[in-house]
Amino acid sequence: MPYKLYTVVLLLAAATFSATAASASPPSIGNLINERLSWMKDVAGYKAQHHQAIEDLPQEEKVLESTLADADSLGLKGESVRPFIQAQMDAAKAIQYRYRADWLAAPETDWRPRPLQDVRTQIGQLSARILQSVAARLKSGQPLTEQDREAFMHAVQQKNLHKQDKQRIWETMKGISLKE
């Protein structure tokens, strides 16, 4: 193999290894919340297809109970977690309502939502990872900073999600505390 080609191959391999190593770090809380909210188009689409209401209070109660149990097992104070979970559910509903409103004027004909049960499984896994990340951050004794807020606001970017929705999630996340 000619020397220049060999050097290029080595440089590409090193770049690939570096990119892989960098991507191996755990995602930020903001990235996890962004991923959780990214499923809302599928939820809205499924509910629209099956003529279901956006607001599903029994499902919300199940999510809240499950998440609070997870929070408790992670050493988080449940009552401090409740507003954070509610803020995420409210933002999720807002996204769904906004999609449904958009579809009244311009339906999407070349897209199909994923099955709701599959989507809810993914959302549940992400919710658990979000709480694990929050608990780890609090247990490490690192308070959330203005720099963290800016990174969060930048990371959480979904169509039909407003700045006020993100701000509420951020503020409620700052209110989470560990059990004493």
CATH level 3 topology: Chorismate Mutase Domain, subunit A
CATH architecture: Up-down Bundle
Low-confidence stretches: 5-22
Rounded radius of gyration (Å): 20 Å
Under CATH, the homologous superfamily reads Chorismate mutase
The major pleated sheet works out as: none
- How far is it from the N-terminal to the C-terminal residue, by CA? 64 Å
Order of SSEs: HHHHHHHH
Q: Give the number of DSSP strands.
A: 0
Strand coverage percent = under 5%
Q: What is the CATH class designation? A: Mainly Alpha
Q: Number of DSSP helices?
A: 8
Question: Helical content, roughly?
Answer: over 70%
Structural class determined from secondary elements? mainly alpha
Shape label: globular
Number of domains: 1
Average pLDDT rating: 89
